[in-house]
Predict the structure.
Amino acid sequence: PKELKTDDGIIITDELKKYIRDASALIVPSFAGYFAEQNMHELSEICTKQGCLLIEDASSAVGDSKLCDGRYSDIIVASFGKWKPINVGYGGFISTNNDLMKNAEMAMSLVKVHPNSENEILSKLNENRLSKMISIAQTIKKNMSGANLVHGNKRGINIMAEYSPFIIEYCKEKGYPYILCPNYIRLNRKAISIELKRLEYE
Protein backbone atom coordinates (compact mmCIF):
# COMPACT_ATOMS: atom_id res chain seq x y z
CA PRO A 1 0.00 0.00 0.00
CA LYS A 2 1.10 3.55 -0.71
CA GLU A 3 -0.05 6.65 1.11
CA LEU A 4 -0.77 9.72 -1.00
CA LYS A 5 0.19 13.24 -0.08
CA THR A 6 -3.02 15.15 0.65
CA ASP A 7 -4.14 18.70 1.22
CA ASP A 8 -5.06 18.20 4.89
CA GLY A 9 -6.90 14.98 4.07
CA ILE A 10 -8.28 15.96 0.66
CA ILE A 11 -6.84 13.88 -2.18
CA ILE A 12 -4.61 16.01 -4.44
CA THR A 13 -5.50 14.90 -7.95
CA ASP A 14 -2.05 15.67 -9.40
CA GLU A 15 -0.51 13.41 -6.73
CA LEU A 16 -3.05 10.71 -7.48
CA LYS A 17 -2.27 10.84 -11.21
CA LYS A 18 1.44 10.25 -10.48
CA TYR A 19 0.83 6.89 -8.83
CA ILE A 20 -2.47 5.58 -10.14
CA ARG A 21 -1.05 3.77 -13.20
CA ASP A 22 0.54 1.20 -10.89
CA ALA A 23 -2.39 1.00 -8.47
CA SER A 24 -5.06 -1.68 -8.26
CA ALA A 25 -7.34 0.32 -5.97
CA LEU A 26 -7.75 3.66 -4.24
CA ILE A 27 -9.32 3.57 -0.78
CA VAL A 28 -10.67 6.92 0.37
CA PRO A 29 -13.10 8.18 3.04
CA SER A 30 -16.12 10.20 1.88
CA PHE A 31 -15.26 12.93 4.38
CA ALA A 32 -11.55 13.35 5.15
CA GLY A 33 -11.27 13.05 8.93
CA TYR A 34 -15.05 13.55 9.04
CA PHE A 35 -14.53 17.28 8.39
CA ALA A 36 -14.02 17.77 4.63
CA GLU A 37 -15.88 16.32 1.66
CA GLN A 38 -13.85 14.54 -1.01
CA ASN A 39 -14.64 15.18 -4.68
CA MET A 40 -15.75 11.62 -5.40
CA HIS A 41 -16.91 12.46 -8.93
CA GLU A 42 -13.44 13.70 -9.91
CA LEU A 43 -11.71 10.79 -8.18
CA SER A 44 -14.03 8.39 -10.00
CA GLU A 45 -13.14 9.87 -13.40
CA ILE A 46 -9.41 9.53 -12.73
CA CYS A 47 -9.71 5.96 -11.42
CA THR A 48 -11.98 4.84 -14.27
CA LYS A 49 -9.56 6.15 -16.92
CA GLN A 50 -6.71 4.17 -15.35
CA GLY A 51 -8.67 0.98 -14.60
CA CYS A 52 -8.22 1.44 -10.87
CA LEU A 53 -10.94 0.38 -8.42
CA LEU A 54 -12.35 3.20 -6.29
CA ILE A 55 -13.25 1.98 -2.80
CA GLU A 56 -15.13 4.51 -0.69
CA ASP A 57 -15.35 4.26 3.09
CA ALA A 58 -18.74 5.92 3.46
CA SER A 59 -19.19 5.35 7.20
CA SER A 60 -19.53 9.12 7.57
CA ALA A 61 -21.80 9.63 4.55
CA VAL A 62 -24.54 6.98 4.46
CA GLY A 63 -27.69 8.72 3.23
CA ASP A 64 -25.89 11.67 1.63
CA SER A 65 -27.15 13.00 -1.71
CA LYS A 66 -23.64 13.46 -3.20
CA LEU A 67 -21.42 10.92 -1.47
CA CYS A 68 -21.90 7.17 -0.89
CA ASP A 69 -23.02 6.92 -4.52
CA GLY A 70 -22.51 3.72 -6.51
CA ARG A 71 -22.33 5.68 -9.77
CA TYR A 72 -18.89 6.89 -8.71
CA SER A 73 -17.41 4.26 -6.38
CA ASP A 74 -16.83 0.67 -7.47
CA ILE A 75 -17.13 -0.58 -3.90
CA ILE A 76 -18.65 1.21 -0.91
CA VAL A 77 -18.05 0.04 2.64
CA ALA A 78 -19.45 1.49 5.85
CA SER A 79 -19.58 0.82 9.56
CA PHE A 80 -22.62 1.28 11.79
CA GLY A 81 -20.48 1.43 14.94
CA LYS A 82 -20.41 3.94 17.76
CA TRP A 83 -20.38 7.66 16.83
CA LYS A 84 -21.20 7.03 13.18
CA PRO A 85 -24.20 8.80 11.57
CA ILE A 86 -25.90 5.39 11.46
CA ASN A 87 -25.06 4.45 15.04
CA VAL A 88 -26.47 1.07 15.99
CA GLY A 89 -23.31 -0.06 17.77
CA TYR A 90 -22.38 -2.90 15.42
CA GLY A 91 -22.31 -4.06 11.81
CA GLY A 92 -21.95 -2.33 8.48
CA PHE A 93 -22.17 -3.12 4.79
CA ILE A 94 -20.29 -3.75 1.56
CA SER A 95 -21.97 -2.55 -1.63
CA THR A 96 -21.16 -2.63 -5.34
CA ASN A 97 -22.95 -1.95 -8.61
CA ASN A 98 -20.87 -4.36 -10.67
CA ASP A 99 -20.03 -8.06 -10.69
CA LEU A 100 -17.13 -7.79 -8.25
CA MET A 101 -19.05 -9.50 -5.45
CA LYS A 102 -20.71 -12.19 -7.56
CA ASN A 103 -18.14 -14.80 -6.56
CA ALA A 104 -18.45 -13.83 -2.91
CA GLU A 105 -22.09 -14.90 -2.56
CA MET A 106 -21.23 -18.08 -0.66
CA ALA A 107 -18.93 -16.26 1.77
CA MET A 108 -21.53 -13.55 2.33
CA SER A 109 -24.21 -16.16 3.02
CA LEU A 110 -22.25 -17.14 6.14
CA VAL A 111 -22.59 -13.64 7.60
CA LYS A 112 -24.99 -13.49 10.52
CA VAL A 113 -27.36 -10.53 10.70
CA HIS A 114 -29.03 -9.45 13.92
CA PRO A 115 -32.82 -9.91 13.46
CA ASN A 116 -33.63 -6.29 14.38
CA SER A 117 -30.73 -4.62 12.56
CA GLU A 118 -32.79 -3.65 9.49
CA ASN A 119 -35.31 -1.73 11.61
CA GLU A 120 -32.58 -0.01 13.61
CA ILE A 121 -30.70 1.06 10.49
CA LEU A 122 -33.82 2.28 8.68
CA SER A 123 -34.94 4.31 11.69
CA LYS A 124 -31.58 6.12 11.72
CA LEU A 125 -31.76 6.77 7.97
CA ASN A 126 -35.31 8.10 8.25
CA GLU A 127 -34.27 10.62 10.88
CA ASN A 128 -32.05 12.41 8.34
CA ARG A 129 -29.33 12.35 10.96
CA LEU A 130 -26.57 13.02 8.46
CA SER A 131 -28.17 16.15 7.01
CA LYS A 132 -28.78 17.41 10.56
CA MET A 133 -25.13 16.83 11.43
CA ILE A 134 -23.89 18.67 8.33
CA SER A 135 -26.32 21.55 8.87
CA ILE A 136 -25.31 21.96 12.53
CA ALA A 137 -21.61 21.89 11.59
CA GLN A 138 -22.22 24.64 8.99
CA THR A 139 -24.07 26.80 11.54
CA ILE A 140 -21.33 26.39 14.15
CA LYS A 141 -18.65 27.30 11.59
CA LYS A 142 -20.48 30.56 10.87
CA ASN A 143 -20.54 31.34 14.60
CA MET A 144 -16.81 30.67 15.06
CA SER A 145 -15.64 34.03 13.76
CA GLY A 146 -11.93 34.51 14.20
CA ALA A 147 -11.16 30.78 14.29
CA ASN A 148 -8.78 29.41 11.65
CA LEU A 149 -10.73 26.48 10.25
CA VAL A 150 -9.21 23.75 8.10
CA HIS A 151 -11.29 23.37 4.91
CA GLY A 152 -13.98 25.46 6.58
CA ASN A 153 -15.71 25.93 3.22
CA LYS A 154 -16.24 22.19 2.74
CA ARG A 155 -19.10 20.07 4.06
CA GLY A 156 -18.39 17.76 6.97
CA ILE A 157 -19.83 16.40 10.21
CA ASN A 158 -16.87 17.45 12.36
CA ILE A 159 -15.04 20.77 12.40
CA MET A 160 -11.26 21.02 12.20
CA ALA A 161 -9.57 24.12 13.57
CA GLU A 162 -5.96 25.22 13.85
CA TYR A 163 -4.75 24.63 17.40
CA SER A 164 -5.65 27.47 19.76
CA PRO A 165 -6.46 27.63 23.51
CA PHE A 166 -9.52 29.65 22.44
CA ILE A 167 -10.90 26.61 20.57
CA ILE A 168 -10.45 24.36 23.60
CA GLU A 169 -12.26 26.89 25.81
CA TYR A 170 -14.99 27.25 23.19
CA CYS A 171 -15.54 23.47 23.11
CA LYS A 172 -15.66 23.26 26.90
CA GLU A 173 -18.12 26.15 27.10
CA LYS A 174 -20.42 24.62 24.46
CA GLY A 175 -20.01 21.03 25.65
CA TYR A 176 -18.51 19.86 22.36
CA PRO A 177 -16.21 16.81 22.51
CA TYR A 178 -12.85 17.34 20.83
CA ILE A 179 -9.65 15.49 19.89
CA LEU A 180 -6.19 17.01 19.82
CA CYS A 181 -4.23 16.43 16.63
CA PRO A 182 -1.92 15.22 15.17
CA ASN A 183 -4.17 12.18 14.95
CA TYR A 184 -3.74 9.67 12.13
CA ILE A 185 -7.46 9.28 11.41
CA ARG A 186 -8.26 13.00 11.67
CA LEU A 187 -5.39 15.34 10.73
CA ASN A 188 -1.68 14.62 10.91
CA ARG A 189 -0.61 18.00 12.25
CA LYS A 190 -1.32 20.25 15.22
CA ALA A 191 -5.03 21.08 15.25
CA ILE A 192 -8.26 20.42 17.13
CA SER A 193 -11.04 18.20 15.79
CA ILE A 194 -14.42 19.25 17.17
CA GLU A 195 -16.22 15.90 17.31
CA LEU A 196 -19.79 16.92 16.54
CA LYS A 197 -20.44 13.39 15.29
CA ARG A 198 -20.35 12.23 18.92
CA LEU A 199 -23.31 14.41 19.91
CA GLU A 200 -26.81 12.97 20.20
CA TYR A 201 -29.02 13.95 17.27
CA GLU A 202 -32.23 12.22 18.30
